[in-house]
DNA sequence: CTTGGCACTCGGGAACACAGAGTGCCAAGC
DNA sequence: GCTTGGCACTCTGTGTTCCCGAGTGCCAAG
């Protein structure tokens, strides 16, 4: 009984604070939510909640504000993800369906998410680690230059130019292409290095220089994994929100691939929406912000993550609903293509 | 004589205001620049300059601030582009040299420019309009799916998946690939539609369905020209600068491809640095900002543009120097690859 | 355990005064 | 005719003071 009401109070505080952006006091609470008790009672509860670290007051004699710990409790136990409206679902679907290639899918997704949540959206490109080789192509460009193209099952294309010591011999190239495709087709990207390690040895000696040149470029392109690239959109939404911490830090973090990666990155259960609140996140520059993220991917494998970043004071149920929905739709799109 | 000194005064005002960010008064001017005349004289000159619209005072009795017209005069007649230091040049060169493909070139360029100028950098992807076909590739993906890849002389790669009504026939695909390459190789992208218009008619009837399916995708990819894509970096640099206009507008504009395109886009002489100051630019949301841009491209053709966007109150000589230098280096890199 | 009453605290806004920077103008000097 | 020093005037920005109101904590009564 007692505890129940305290939780109700906490929930009310979070909801009011999120919607008004002002510290909420005991009187306002009893007026806006019918809790059936008087302000004085609320005050007692609030005193306890404060002692337990769920709420805080900015100054003596001002309303209360949820702490990170308070938001955490709210997210974990006091709220449920709010599904999108039918109209929103249709909009998502039709917007994403128009995508023409993987770049386009990512670009559209990030914009969509930003617009939907009115916050900064972050989308990680589908990781290669989990994908497999669909095709390898070798294209002669000029006498001593070859373009090497790797296509994965997610539709991602990596291309590199290979500089050769000798003139290109069409037949050798064709042969090597066949060999490469035969040994790599369907193979996971992570196991490619193993597969090709002894390949030059199995070829006739005159093919080896060509093969080693190509393989070194191939391996390099895998190592770089630049495709763990992250894009963001909706920075304009930061302008309205007043961050406790300067928004310079936030913008800086957004342009640091590495930081973003770590924010979204540490994966969890497939398809579950994870929330990281304020000081819970690993980067000190983002103390005042929360990250709501989810994994997406085609089939049963999680390929990458996406999410949004906003002030700690955000509408978690709605945001989580949007993130979850978009993650699902993107997964569908990817699986279909 | 008279006019000369007025110009010197204007230059001094611009320089001081840019460096201090405070309206500059007559007394401060005589102290910091040895103009050889007294504050009272300066005041007379300033009154004239104000009447002519080159400077303005924010409030009665405060220093003067350059107007857009004043900056314009400064840029056109009173300043010269400041070359970069040798160290900066080396840094640019080595940073760009590490680029591995066209995406990488663009990404590195935009970051470099942002860091160099401490402003928002904007880079347009090399336009297809000016580029030529280097190679067309057709890759069977599955029974009824084909990947179509177009490689241009700038190293840009467009890929699309083609859905087919019939099963893929390897021989037909090979034949069509040969035909396509024969007729398109080296052909400008803008003339591709003409070249392929009658192509199905010249093929044996059994090849036509395949050919038309592929061609429709090819044409579509050309029409979309999404590659007139624009990326930006350095948004964090906006946080420090205090814009007269809200920075929300600026961030919004940055995410609108179309707006950015128009800002950089209207081309001018190759390799000249163009400056658009405050209200001169076509987009009302960006009244308080200036754009310094230049074209870049390999060889003698201008492929695209790059530049930076910052507050009207910027150090034009330095910024112009940086933009010019980066444009040149990128052109070199592109020409070499 | 809840509730009304009450004294206390403190932030934020309004009113006000003041110093300082800067201007415009005028009359004198070169 | 341009330049210069002097002088009165006009503002903005800042610091001070004061007061109101929202909100709290505590206490004693129900």
Automatic annotation (TrEMBL), chains A, B:
Gene3D superfamilies: 3.30.450.40, Heat-inducible transcription repressor hrca homolog, domain 3 (3.30.390.60), Winged helix-like DNA-binding domain superfamily/Winged helix DNA-binding domain (1.10.10.10). Residues 103-320 form the Heat-inducible transcription repressor HrcA C-terminal domain. The keyword Protein biosynthesis does not apply. InterPro entries: DeoR_HTH, GAF-like_dom_sf, HrcA, HrcA_C, WH-like_DNA-bd_sf, WH_DNA-bd_sf, WHTH_transcript_rep_HrcA_IDD. The keyword Transcription regulation applies. Residues 34-60 form the HTH deoR-type domain. Keywords: Repressor, Stress response, Transcription, Transcription regulation. Negative regulator of class I heat shock genes (grpE-dnaK-dnaJ and groELS operons). Prevents heat-shock induction of these operons. Belongs to the HrcA family. This is Heat-inducible transcription repressor HrcA. It comes from Streptosporangium fragile.
